[in-house]
Amino acid sequence: MSVPSPVATRTVLALAASVTAPFDEPTLERLEPTLRTIGLDFEIAFYELVRRREPDHEPTLEALGHAYTQRGRHELGLEVDRRLAELRPDDAVVHYNLACSYSLLDDKDLAIASLERAIELGYDDLDHLEKDKDLDALRGDRRFQALVKKIG
User: Fold this and answer.
1) What is the dihedral of CA 141, 145, 151, 152, to 10 degrees?
2) In this structure, are 74 and 111 located in the same domain?
3) Residues 114 and 84 grouped into a single domain
4) What range does the domain containing 4 cover?
5) CB-hemisphere CA count at 13 Å for 11?
6) Among 128, 98, 125, which Cα is nearest to 114's?
7) In this structure, are residues 43 and 65 in contact, taking their beta carbons and an 8 Å threshold?
8) What is the pLDDT of residue 25?
9) CA dihedral 91, 94, 96, 99 (to 10 degrees)
10) Rounded to two decimals, what is the model's pTM?
């Protein structure tokens, strides 16, 4: 079992010192971002350990890629999404997630290409596509607008 980092320990201790029961709504709202970050860091550490033992375990890669993205570690999320695309080349959702990773890194050409591939493979969740903030970098691109029309 690994030992928590000194930074994580100090963060938790500082949080604990600032909290008094009962946990009212303002206190919970104040704590939520820090607790979410600690939770994501724990998830990432856990999935990285699993990945070391079984590098191509697809459910682990899916969860790790999502956690990296949520934590803002987009380069690492892209690395995981690329690996998933190699393992599951015919999976529409994998290619959609790959498009999101490219978009988050502002690589519009590869994001559009991955999104096109996702749609070719059957991705058709127009509602999600239109609301997904990961694709915001593409919204003004005429190619993205054409893809939205294609599945709309």
Assistant:
1) 150
2) no
3) no
4) 1-88
5) 15
6) 98
7) no
8) 75
9) -130
10) 0.79
